[in-house]
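As the work plan foresaw, the team has encoded backbone shapes as discrete tokens. One protein thus recorded appears below exactly as we store it.

:::
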Amino acid sequence: MLGHHRFALVDLETTGGQASQDHIMEAAVRVIGGDVDLEWQSLIDPLCSVPSFIQGLTGISNSMLRGKPRFSDVQETLWSYLDGAILVAHNARFDAGFLRANFARYGRDYRPRVLCTLKLARTLYPDWPKHGLEAICARIGFYSEVHHRAMADVDAMKAFLDYARADKGEAVFNFEVGLLLDLPVLPPSIRQADIDAIPCEPGIYRLLGEAGELLYLGGARSLQEQVLSHFENATGDSKAAKLARRVDAVQWQILAGELSAGLHLSAALRHEKPLLQRRAKALGKPCCVRFITEDSGELQLRLRSGLPANIAQTGELVGLFRERKHAKTRIRELAKEHQLCLRRLAVLVEGELCECGACALTAEGAGESAVASAADFAARVKAAFAGYLYTPWPFAEPVLIHEDNGAGFSECHLVYDWRHFGSFRWNAERGQLLELSGSAEPLDLAAARRICEQTQEFRYEHYRLLRAFQHNLKWQPLSQFTATIGDEYTA
């Protein structure tokens, strides 16, 4: 069971259910794992009378406990079995709570990693009607002469673990145990050799289900690291755990770099629909915030979809956001951060009040002196939105952006006015751009220029991606490309 880890299977019998006021009257532990198999048990004098209900449930009477060691007498021995081991118990919160409270009285801070066999049974066998220890024993055919005695219940837990490992298989069993323990584990159908075979290069990857269905589609700087992160972050009933449970295979494609991975991923997500991946609501037209100066000189905001058609000619100042909801949220966040008046920005909805300092002072009778001038207010608004202002296309023509992964794979991305028109390999001998898939006709530079004259929708995700790499990669206008062709561009 998860190889090198040690597990301490524990059961306690107590005088009641409250760790703060009740006492341990029997403890049993069996330590397994790492070539270790040890066990210890003892009745413990709780220094109080055992309630009749508990006596009837466990069969432990007051007379049986008289003269037995106290917890103070056994705590050193019990600690030697538990220290450094994963605590395994049925309804483990109960046992962990009692052990923590009792050890704390002797200066020991007991906070182990915990595996609850009740949760494990519910996870592995959700169709079983009951998951109590007695019901599990009946289900798996394990019979004991006594119940609600510490070592008998430890033996029952061990029997269940052995049964589940044999029934579900080592891979599935270890995977589910690992999830419950928040340990990094691979999906049952993925071996470490499969992970080792994934390159540490930029690219895109697909996580597939048992029938070959697409579960997840992603891009990465390092394919191996990113794929592995899906499984390392899988815990309990998280989305990552649900994905990991269904993954049966991984496919990947090496690309020239992070920009290439982002562009290819964007294109793939428009045509493929991963089953366990939430897709962005606004994959095309962004929400643009226009800065409108009224006749009074006041600067106000207006939200609209997409970029203004004539923005290249007018040079209009606009803020750009991925969608309308994002724009509205950020407007209020920026207004609060920079003390901008939402009323003056004309973005208040009916019934909403502005909480800026100027409105507060005006409400208190401070008068017009509390209100900033139109020019000062406009300057503060533009400064607040500086990080979201649309940057005009910095070239007079299309460009080829060269990207190389450092391992012999390079691409040229054809881009104009922040629109992506394709990614290619450059064949210097033929003077042509070759599409990676080889499905399209090769392009010379004149044909590439003509393609960029075609109407292409502005995509927010491409704009943000290209802006992020504007100063990190070589951007070459098509008119200059032929003069600098060298080995660095050759496929």
